[in-house]
Write a structure and sequence with these properties.
Blueprint (H helix, E strand, L loop, with lengths): L1 H9 L6 H18 L5 H9 L7 H9 L9 E2 L2 H11 L5 E2 L4
Parallel strand pairs: 1-2
């Protein structure tokens, strides 16, 4: 991503690489999630994204099956982690990316 950002800023000839990579990654995520009928609950969660909507049933499931894990769940960004942390009263959520 850092290299793509550099190319994006350096020249108009290479500026298309960053949006292409981001769009392609997002499209691939939707295709993979869409093909998995057993993960239908995940589709709505991903669609909510950073919108702040948290599925109470999902949080309940995660809390019930946490066991001895340090984190409740791992998500791809801090924007996805924040609503979960707030809805659980402060349970730790690992944000793999984001700020």
């Amino acid at each position: 991503m850092v290299a793509l950002w550099g190319w994006y800023r350096r020249s108009w000839a290479t500026a298309w690489l960053l949006p292409l990579a981001l769009g392609g990654t997002a499209a691939l995520d939707w295709v993979l999630i869409g093909r998995s009928a057993s993960l239908s609950w995940l589709q709505a969660w991903v669609a909510a994204g950073a919108g702040g909507a948290v599925d109470a049933a999902l949080v309940g499931y995660l809390e019930a099956n946490r066991g001895q894990a340090s984190y409740l769940v791992a998500v791809t960004s801090s924007m996805q982690a924040a609503p979960i942390i707030l809805s659980t009263g402060g349970d730790p959520v690992m944000a793999i990316g984001g700020l």
